[in-house]
Amino acid sequence: MKLAKTYNYLKKDLDYIEKAVDKVIQADHPVLREASTHLLMAGGKRIRPVFVLLGGQFGNYDIERMSIVATSIELIHMASLVHDDVIDDAEIRRGGPTIKKQYDNKVAMYTGDYLLARSLEIITTLKEKQAHQTLAKTIVEVCIGEIEQIKDKHVWDQSMRTYLRRIRRKTALLIATSCKLGAIAAGVKEKDANRLFKYGYYIGMSYQIIDDILDFTSSEKELGKPAGNDLLQGNVTLPVLYAMKYPAFNSLVKNTFTGSKSVNEEQMRLLIKLLKQTDAIERSYQVSDMYLRKALHVLDKLPDHRSKQSLIGIATYIGRRRS
């Protein structure tokens, strides 16, 4: 089953949000306008706007208010991708050239800043102070997560706790915030808004872990970027942490990345092959499944609603995701 089938009834509203995002990024300056539009047209799952809408369905759902939150959240996500590509020196995103590749690092950084500024401009049209505070705190944590990722690159002996804390900041909190802000904008009871936040947090952790798994198990065509790219960038993900417990992989990784020499495709193919021969993928899926079970447990306490079934469907889809 495709992910979109779990929330088919939101298609009209998601189309509305897509147009809203396109309208918001239209800058007067041609370079900012073209760069932002280039990123939007490259596609993406738009999963964060979906969580905003599903969170809002538990209250007084108003598409205009949902659109404000969803647009703001998606712009923050887009800004983080642009900045990530500069940090990682990435040339391909979603199967096409990154903004830094198409223009340069300076244009990419200012494009990311522009998207972030537009996001904050949009969210302040909501009067709820809690929404502003929640989003601001999340942006702070995302920034800390990015800095931590830079600091932790090529640190092969880091703990699982360090990895989990990093993906919490980088990925899970923005998904959790998507769920909660949708609820806040719809006037959902505080206890249920907090439950939606927890659901989003657990889903976000699972989602990132599976993304990290797919970096090794999917093809370049499926990923839209080279397989093993995270490891190539020196990012120590959960499959790598587990595989590092095997002396052969541990030794090969350290020898491959020692010094300033660049790592070639043949070396990456060998590393990926050796990682797959360990139980790293299986153990990583087990951790992902643990977070999914927690997400489903939280949903048990939410009132019965069509969107609750969609949230269950998304959790089920993520658990089965293999590409």
Can you give a write-up of this model?
This protein is mainly alpha-helical and 323 residues long. It has one domain (3-320): Farnesyl Diphosphate Synthase (Orthogonal Bundle). Helix content is 72%, strand content 1%. It has helices at residues 11-24, 30-41, 47-56, 63-87, 99-102, 105-123, 129-152, 160-185, 190-217, 220-223, 229-232, 238-243, 247-257, 265-276, 280-299, 306-320; strands at 92-93, 96-97. The protein has a two-stranded antiparallel ribbon with strand order 1-2. Strand 1 and strand 2 (96-97) form a beta hairpin. The chain is globular, with a radius of gyration of 20 Å. The chain starts with 10 loop residues before the first helix and ends with a helix.
